[in-house]
């Protein structure tokens, strides 16, 4: 349950729909599906195998299983969690902001265009973004510090199904919108001219991100896993739940876009610009809208708890910090890094960032993580599990609690050859070092 809570979050609800929009739909979704099963799921199993064997934080786990030589990979994972936590908190902050606005019935009397425009106001409001980001980081830190994971897991069992139910309800509503068929075509019909190589890298990063791999989170959770639990089954179930949420979120959002003639490449504000338009048309707007955004905040919280937990266990294990000290320092550091992201819209900090780097600070951290850090972490993890780990240890950990023995060999094959090769080609192509397009011309 905790691992599912970590996996289902803003990656599926917020990120998947908007990058699908930016990358022209169909083919991107197909790439995401292929990467999920061919790369994300095997790596997920690999991280569980590592965690269950080493019973330690990612730095300790890689160090212990490799006589220290792969220790750097644990630190790379920790770096990725820090980056992710910083911009994830800004987005969760937007959801907090929308919860309060909804409670105050902000959409009453506004046209669809005006409701859509509210996000731009929020995005450029410096202090408001800072306030919500700080609040959300504080909320996560509070839960991690108090060690009330048990309480959160209890609430997960009630609130996550409620989130699924509300998504299904919204999905049913969106099938009645006139843009629904157009949305289906957009999401499921692959058009060859739409996907760029950067988009392909992004699909890879997203497939890993929504499964929470490449950041040590699953290694940490693997270390809590019992011997009689089935690793491949866990990975598959979580991948399916994740895919379900991602697709439903897109199937709710795109019909709104095509019905109201909004642009599909709307960027990070997509979720917040579309759903409120529909909420405003439903009876009980205030309750539905407030509840929905609070559920989104909760889904984000179950993810950030796992992200912060990695950094806290790493620093307590490696440096011997107390839990309190680790929580405070990490929360502080994360907020520091989140400040320029939260101020990206208002451009009150690093005003020339966009001119110099082509993207605002938020976009730069986000795309650095998705396009480079996650694929590189995944590549190293595959090489480590496939070639470096002791094979008897690896096999024992994989097959404990699992009678699907026939899966072991294909899994090793993927980890050894398919994943490294695919990721290397995509990275080299993305970096402009090779040009695979030549072979198809
Ligand atoms: N998988 C989470 C999501 O989709 C994000 C996440 C990434 C959580 C990495 C934990 C670790 O939102």
Topology, number of strands: 0
- Overall 3D form: globular
Topology as H/E string? HHHHHHHHHHHHHHHHHHHH
Distance between the termini: 47 Å
Low-confidence stretches at least 5 residues in length (pLDDT < 50)? none
The helix fraction, in percent, is: over 70%
Number of helical regions: 20
Structural class: mainly alpha
Give the DSSP E fraction (strand runs of 2 or more residues): under 5%
Oligomer: single chain
> What fold name goes in the CATH topology slot?
Amino acid/polyamine transporter I
Gyration radius (Cα, Å) is 21 Å
Biggest sheet, in brief?
none
CATH architectural name: Up-down Bundle
Q: Output mean pLDDT.
A: 91
What is the topology?
Elements: H1 2-7, H2 10-22, H3 26-54, H4 58-65, H5 71-103, H6 112-123, H7 126-146, H8 149-175, H9 180-188, H10 197-210, H11 217-222, H12 231-259, H13 270-279, H14 285-319, H15 323-342, H16 353-357, H17 361-388, H18 391-399, H19 408-430, H20 437-440
Helix pairs in contact: 2-10, 2-12, 3-4, 3-9, 3-10, 3-12, 3-17, 3-18, 3-19, 4-5, 5-7, 5-14, 5-15, 5-17, 6-13, 7-14, 7-15, 8-12, 8-14, 9-12, 10-17, 10-19, 12-13, 14-15, 15-17, 17-19
């Amino acid at each position: 349950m905790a691992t599912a809570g970590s996996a289902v979050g803003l990656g599926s609800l917020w990120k998947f729909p908007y990058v699908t929009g930016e990358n022209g739909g169909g083919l991107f979704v197909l790439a995401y599906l292929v990467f999920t099963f061919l790369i994300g799921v095997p790596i997920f199993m690999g991280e569980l195998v590592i965690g269950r064997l080493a019973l330690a934080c990612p730095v300790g786990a890689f160090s212990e299983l490799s006589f220290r030589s792969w220790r750097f990979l644990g630190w790379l994972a920790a770096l990725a969690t820090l980056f992710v936590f910083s911009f994830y908190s800004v987005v969760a902050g937007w959801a907090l902001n929308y919860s309060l606005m909804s409670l105050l019935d902000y959409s009453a009397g506004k046209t669809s265009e005006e409701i859509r425009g509210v996000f731009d106001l929020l995005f450029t409001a410096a202090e408001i973004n800072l306030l919500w980001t700080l609040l959300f980081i504080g909320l996560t830190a509070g839960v991690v510090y108090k060690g009330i994971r048990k309480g959160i897991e209890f609430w997960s069992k009630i609130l996550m199904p409620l989130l699924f139910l509300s998504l299904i309800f919204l999905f049913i509503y969106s099938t009645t919108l006139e843009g629904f068929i157009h949305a289906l075509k957009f999401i499921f019909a692959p058009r060859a001219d739409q996907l760029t190589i950067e988009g392909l890298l992004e699909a890879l990063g997203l497939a890993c991100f929504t499964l929470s791999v490449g950041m040590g989170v699953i290694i940490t959770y693997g270390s809590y896993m019992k011997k009689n639990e089935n690793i491949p089954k866990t990975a598959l179930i979580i991948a399916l739940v994740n895919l379900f949420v991602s697709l439903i979120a897109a199937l709710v959002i795109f019909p709104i876009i095509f019905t109201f003639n909004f642009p599909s490449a709307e960027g990070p504000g997509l979720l917040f610009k579309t759903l409120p338009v529909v909420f405003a048309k439903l009876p009980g707007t205030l309750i539905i809208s407030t509840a929905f955004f609070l559920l989104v905040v909760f889904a984000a919280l179950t993810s950030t708890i796992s992200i912060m937990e990695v950094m806290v266990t790493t620093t307590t294990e490696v440096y011997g910090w107390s839990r309190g000290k680790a929580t405070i320092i990490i929360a502080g550091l994360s907020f520091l890094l989140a400040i320029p992201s939260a101020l990206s819209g208002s451009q009150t900090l690093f005003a020339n960032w966009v001119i110099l780097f082509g993207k605002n600070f938020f976009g730069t951290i986000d795309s650095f993580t998705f396009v480079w850090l996650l694929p590189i972490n995944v590549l190293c993890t595959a090489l480590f599990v496939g070639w470096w780990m002791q094979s008897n240890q690896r096999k024992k950990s994989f097959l404990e609690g699992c009678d699907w023995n026939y899966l072991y060999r294909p899994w090793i094959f993927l980890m050894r050859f398919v994943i490294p090769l695919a990721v290397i080609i995509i990275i080299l192509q993305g970096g402009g070092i090779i040009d695979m397009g030549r072979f198809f011309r």
